[in-house]
Design a protein that fits this description.
Elements lengths: L1 E2 L1 E5 L6 H12 L3 E3 H9 L3 H24 L6 E3 L8 H10 E7 L2 H8 L13 H19 L2 E4 L5 H12 L4 E2 L2
Parallel strand pairs: 2-4, 2-5, 3-4, 5-6
Antiparallel strand pairs: 1-7
Helix pairs in contact: 1-7, 2-3, 5-6
């Protein structure tokens, strides 16, 4: 049996960071957040990176961080919602861990991100349309690499964590 990384993917507001922190604590594993790592390594927050370098600049930084973080063994990692846009990220996640897609419908995403001013793609009046477009584009990519899909609208964080542990194993090992 081998310790496997657990990667959480999904749209904004799906609960990746919240679930990730709690799951890592339950499994006694380190928790990483790819967005936080991008900020820490660049010395700038994501909105600033988007302003100065555009989404493409951010995605390049994200890809470098994800590649590096995927080489660490025995971690739980939350990823940014757009991580699946880059094929290199999808390959790295699939090759190095158990991928959990935390799905949330647009209505839930809107509710959970309503007061958030740190998400550059949502700093527009047509937030609902933006979220719908992003989900339409990314949902097939999320599903394409997911080992497990969970609807976070219908489950409490405790239930989500229990489902992940049941699928991965209580020691963070994959029985496959």
């Amino acid at each position: 049996m081998q310790l496997r990384n657990i990667y959480l993917i999904g749209p904004m507001g799906a609960g990746k960071t919240t679930i990730g922190r709690l799951l890592a604590k339950d499994l006694n594993l380190p928790f990483l957040d790819s967005d936080h790592e991008v900020e820490a390594r660049s010395g700038a927050d994501i909105p600033w990176i988007f302003d100065m370098e555009g989404e493409s600049g951010f995605r390049l930084r994200e890809m470098q961080v994800v590649t590096e973080l995927c080489s660490i063994k025995g971690v739980v990692m939350a990823t940014g919602g757009g991580v699946v846009k880059a094929e290199a990220n999808r390959r790295a996640l699939c090759a190095n861990g158990f991928v959990v897609y935390l799905y949330a419908p647009v209505s839930v995403q809107l509710e959970r991100t309503a007061r958030d001013k740190r998400r550059p793609l949502l700093q527009r009046p047509d937030r609902e349309q933006v979220l719908r477009s992003l989900l339409k584009e990314r949902d097939p990519l999320y599903r394409g690499i997911a080992d497990l899909v969970l609807d976070t609208q219908k489950m409490s964080p405790k239930t989500v964590i229990a489902e992940i542990i049941k699928s991965v194993g209580s020691e963070g090992v994959c029985n496959a």
